[in-house]
Design goal:
The protein is an all-alpha fold. Helices cover about 65% and strands about 0% of the residues. The chain is built from nine helices and no strands. It is elongated, with a radius of gyration of 23 Å.
Length: about 210
């Protein structure tokens, strides 16, 4: 194994250890000493990769962003064609997938929000673009955002152990959030065209009913 491969392996071990600590013990327990113990690494080896806890959190947020974007694009490529609201569906599906991951990358968001809020700028900017796309594709933007918020609620309560719902109930609710037929959703129609101008250059007036 060359140096680059060893370095990448060490970085992955650190990030997996950090996610395990956040998921099990909460963001407040995330320290370099705890990461070293969890990952079976010496503190010196850990600090060679990440000199501070903030560097670990930044790497976690970067990994989350890359993972989420890859899932989002893959979903759009496979299922987006023909869906009334493909951006909303891709976002809800990505949150659903997060609840099925034991060390979900969403924990990185929770840790960063609690410990280093400044790191959330990147994820907020990405989400803002997705929300803009979700609103643009929907005939009822408010309803689309309510579905987005509901999906986040299902995800966070599940990951934090706060949900009274069974896994079967949660999956059924995700199914309903993804089913556009249940929400009367249709793609946003293009704006109506203005009447064609007459020879004088003025728009034609609509014919009066008698």
């Amino acid at each position: 194994m060359d140096n680059a491969a060893r370095s990448e392996r060490s970085r992955n071990a650190v990030l997996e250890a950090a996610l395990a600590i956040i998921a099990r013990d909460g963001p407040a327990r995330l320290t370099l000493d705890a990461i070293a113990r969890e990952g079976g690494l010496s503190k010196g080896r850990l600090m060679h990769q990440f000199p501070s806890k903030e560097a670990v959190l930044a790497a976690l947020v970067k990994r989350l962003t890359e993972y989420s974007e890859a899932f989002y694009r893959a979903y759009m490529d496979e299922f987006g064609t023909g869906q009334p609201q493909p951006h909303l569906a891709a976002y809800i599906a990505s949150l659903r997938e997060a609840t099925a991951t034991p060390r979900s990358h969403v924990f990185a968001v929770l840790a960063a929000a609690a410990q280093e809020p400044g790191l959330m700028t990147v994820t907020r900017d990405i989400d803002a673009k997705k929300i803009k796309a979700i609103k643009a594709e929907s005939s009822d933007p408010d309803l689309a955002i309510l579905r987005w918020v509901a999906a986040w609620g299902l995800t966070l309560t599940a990951l934090l152990g706060l949900s009274p719902l069974s896994e079967k109930e949660r999956q059924r609710l995700f199914d309903r959030l993804l089913d556009d037929r249940l929400w009367g959703s249709t793609p946003k129609s293009p704006p109506p065209k203005s009447p064609a101008p007459n020879k004088s250059g003025r728009p034609r007036r609509a014919a009066r009913r008698r």
